[in-house]
Amino acid sequence: MPIDLALHHLRAIVALADHGTFTAAAAALQVAQSSLSRSIQESERRLRVPLFLRTTRRVTLTPDGEAIVAVARSLVANVDTGLEHMAGYLAGTRGSLRIATLPSLAATLLPPFLLALRSSYPTMHIHVADSLNEQVWAAVGKGRADVAITALSGPVPRGYEIRPLAEDDFFVAVPGTHPWAGEPKLRWSQLADVPLVSFSPASSIQPLVRQALDNHRAIPEEEVAAQNIGAVGGLVAGGLGLGVVPGFVLPLLDFAGLTFIPLRPRVSRKIVLVRSRDRPLTPVAHAWVDIVTGPHRPDLRGVRWQG
């Protein structure tokens, strides 16, 4: 039997389940309480099962209601994501580009490419959302960004398309007065029993560093963890430990007066361009992708461009 429920019925069911009263749910949906009550009654009649138990103070779900709400919540989320993709596409055709990326890439990789785009689209509104790797992927998947540039550390998640852009190699960051400052290169195994300043586990950097250290049985003497690049640079410069940083991060640590020594064997981050399979690129986003993947790329130490 076909179920004749519209989107407003599904939203009403989810809102009432979430807020527990008709008054609060109606306010959240910005509809009259009588309209919400009518939508719930229509839903229960069409489904032929009671979804809620009413009391004078609260509304609670029936067992059937709990199952229906789970399905309704998923359907509403999918519709909202699709609408975000649609709105993003339309905004892009009107001179808007939303890019999600890592903080280090926002500061080092993006600027020359965005300047090149601006020369062709001088009135373009560009929004750069810099955040941690997991949040960058989510921004594309949920339609909050047209494209992303970020690190890929495993299989490509379902629903995404990627294009390899670059790989950046890892270096040891040491103060200029450190005994290793004059070394042409270092091995990962030499970091055993050495104090390190590390990035947080949520960064795109630390999991690769941890894996490389484990592979070479290099257990640091102690570690001081920090969230952002500037803090890591300052702590290394202050003598709290050595840092292990990738190529795109090096320009952001110039302020600290550090020396960067290549690590061997080579370990690299994979930097990729990410888009959603469910969202067509706008003309502006297409133009930007062509610029990023084109032949004119900055020469950065420790960065090897691909494609």
Could you explain the architecture of this structure?
The chain has 307 residues and is α/β, with parallel strands linked by helices. The chain has three domains: 7-90, Winged helix-like DNA-binding domain superfamily/Winged helix DNA-binding domain (Arc Repressor Mutant, subunit A), CATH 1.10.10; 94-158 and 276-305, D-Maltodextrin-Binding Protein, domain 2; 166-268, Periplasmic binding protein-like II (D-Maltodextrin-Binding Protein, domain 2, 3-Layer(aba) Sandwich), CATH 3.40.190.10. It contains ten helices and 13 strands. Strand 1 and strand 2 (59-61) form a beta hairpin. Helix 1 crosses helix 2 (22-29) and helix 1 (7-19) crosses helix 3 (33-47). The longest helix has 31 residues, at 63-93. The mean pLDDT is 91. One of its GO terms (cellular component) is cytosol. GO terms for molecular function: DNA binding; DNA-binding transcription factor activity. This is DNA-binding transcriptional LysR family regulator.
